[in-house]
Design goal:
The protein is mainly beta. The chain contains no helices and 21 strands. The chain is globular.
């Protein structure tokens, strides 16, 4: 999704047109680094490891965007050099750093490119962290959910009057004239059905969850029809984030045996 993944303009999409042949000059593997305006903080063991208003976001073909943060904004004395090295043909040799806070050590928690290769965006002086190596990340005063948001990624949840019928295993399990359509960068349109328009008795909680930085935490349900259970083919956002608020109390369906029919 976004600039460098899925259908993004730097991911060589099959759909959409530009008024120039961008791909005759653009590299097959694109890198784009730009500053972000939000304050970014990372916390481990109750201690702030990094606190910056100078974060940059790196977009790279086929990868999720990643923060690169000024090394000077990392709390002094917490990072120590690692012997680990990796090489990226597009960025250069990465040096790694261990992170230690009050006796708690995270191996190879961060990396930097002190001498980026020619043509690479200016990564020298910046450091990136494995996000899962810290307890919590904050954007301003809000806790990060999932990965850093891409400012070029968009979610629009639109109330609709289209006729949506959901069949699982050939049986109708939901039908509505009041769906919510979610249009999200790089993804097919998803249709969400109000809870009251889902057939009684076909859903059972599965316990599975996924995290979307743009919509929130999704909880999944199995669908049981015709003597068979279809695992994790329904989901809902019980407390959606702002962009997805209209889908609260709605279900969407996808997966094996699912067919969603949409007509005007």
């Amino acid at each position: 999704m976004s600039l460098t993944r899925g259908t993004g303009p730097l991911a060589r999409p099959s759909a959409g047109r530009l008024n120039a042949d961008l791909w005759s000059v653009a590299p097959a593997h694109a890198l784009y680094l730009h500053p972000v305006q939000e304050r970014v903080r990372g916390v481990l063991g109750g201690r702030t490891v990094v606190d910056t208003t100078g974060a940059s976001l790196l977009h790279e073909t086929g990868l999720l965007p990643r923060w690169y943060l000024p090394a000077d904004d990392v709390a002094p004395g917490l990072l120590s050099p690692s012997a680990t090295r990796t090489t990226c043909p597009f960025k250069g040799e990465a040096s790694y750093w261990h992170l230690e806070v009050d006796g708690s050590r995270v191996e190879d928690a961060a990396w930097s490119y002190p001498d980026p290769v020619d043509g690479c965006p200016p990564l020298a002086g910046l450091v990136s962290f494995h996000l899962e190596g810290l307890d919590t990340w904050y954007v301003e005063d809000e806790e990060l959910l999932g990965h850093p948001r891409d400012p070029f990624h968009r979610v629009d949840a639109r109330r609709s009057s289209r006729h949506v019928v959901v069949r699982v295993g050939g049986e109708v399990v939901a039908e509505t004239r009041s769906p919510v359509a979610v249009f999200e960068t790089g993804l097919p349109t998803r249709w969400y059905v109000p809870e009251e328009d889902v057939r009684d008795g076909v859903l059972t909680p599965s316990g599975a969850t996924t995290v979307c930085p743009y919509k929130g935490v999704a909880t999944y349900e199995h669908v049981a029809v015709g003597g068979r259970r279809y695992d994790d083919v329904a989901w809902c956002y019980r407390e959606p984030l702002l962009e997805a608020l209209p889908v609260a109390g709605h279900r969407s369906f996808d997966g094996e045996g699912v067919r969603v029919e949409v007509t005007t």
